[in-house]
Amino acid sequence: MSVPDPAAGAATVPGRGEDRILTAANVVTAVRLASIPVFCWLLFGVGRQTAAAILLGVLGATDWVDGQLARRLHQVSTVGKVLDPTADRLLVGTAVISVIVHGAVPLWFGLLTIAREVLVSATVVVLAGLGARRIDVLWIGKAGTFALMVAYPGFLISHGAAGWQEPFHVVAWVAGGVGLVLAWVAAVAYVVPARTALAEGRRARRDGGSSPASGPVAPGQGVGR
User: Fold this and answer.
1) Are 80 and 28 in contact (CB under 8 A)?
2) CA–CA distance from 13 to each of 9, 10, 18, 212, 214 (Å)?
3) Closest CA to 33 of 104, 82, 103, 100
4) What is the pLDDT of residues 175-220, one digit of tens each?
5) Is the dihedral of CA 152, 157, 160, 163 positive or negative?
6) Which residues lie closer than 8 Å to 49 by C-beta, 6 or more apart?
7) How wide is the angle at C-alpha 41 spanned by C-alphas 36 and 43, nearest 5°?
8) Are the C-beta atoms of residues 32 and 62 closer than 8 Å to each other?
């Protein structure tokens, strides 16, 4: 039996404190996760459309908080690296499907948003299985996600015939149009980095300097958390 190379093994050992679970960043992520069923209850359980839209807007606007806390407080953790993107994907998926069901957004727009999320998520899983290294986030992808998280609360709060809702409807379409275009442009733009990451990941594994734990991070899911 061969003896593992200590230098190679060092790359697979989590950094100091990365095994922590109870951190400020993880608490914020957990609160965002717990707020998803509250959003659904407000929208479908008690019919509080405006309250649900405000909560959705807050959840979208705080997407960056947990990642910033993790980095600034030096609380990057293995749990956080899994929990943060999971919360983001669940939030986006729940928001899009809920707003579609509520009838506040055209079906074609919602389906294009979901299709992009499914494509990115499936690609990440495939790349991880093939041993690709981490993929750095492109700013265009983060901008697209942010614009969409502005658009969907806007669509929801503007769903109705009241005069005060019209400005929100306009903002929702502007942000949504820009966000959807940027999101799909980013999806295409990740093709080249993904191919490079796959080649480098396979090369590193052949050289004994990497492990499956260093697989890819989904575009727009907080690299470095």
Assistant:
1) no
2) 7, 5, 10, 12, 11
3) 82
4) 999 999 999 999 898 888 888 888 888 887 777 654 444 444 444 4
5) negative
6) 43, 102, 156, 157, 159, 160
7) 95
8) yes
pTM of the predicted model over 0.90 = no
Q: For the CA atoms of the chain, what is the radius of gyration?
A: 20
Express each pLDDT in 154-171 by its tens digit. Answer: 999 999 888 899 999 999
Let me know: does 25 contact 81? Beta carbons within 8 Å: no
Q: What is the mean pLDDT of residues 35-57?
A: 95
Q: Give the tokens for residue 155.
A: 């669509």
Share of the chain above pLDDT 90, in %: 35
Single-letter code of the amino acid located at 154: G
Cα–Cα distance, 123 to 121 (Å, whole number)? 5
Domains of the chain and CATH, by start: 6-214 (1.20.120.1760)
- In this prediction, residue 115 carries a pLDDT of 94
**Which residue from 17, 117, 130, 13 is spatially nearest to 74, judged by alpha carbons?**
17
Is it the case that residue 50 has pLDDT exceeding 90? yes
Token couple for 106: 């055209």
Contact call for residues 127 and 197 (beta carbons, < 8 A): yes
Paired tokens of 98: 């809920």
Residue 121, both tokens: 């998520």
73-86 average pLDDT score: 75
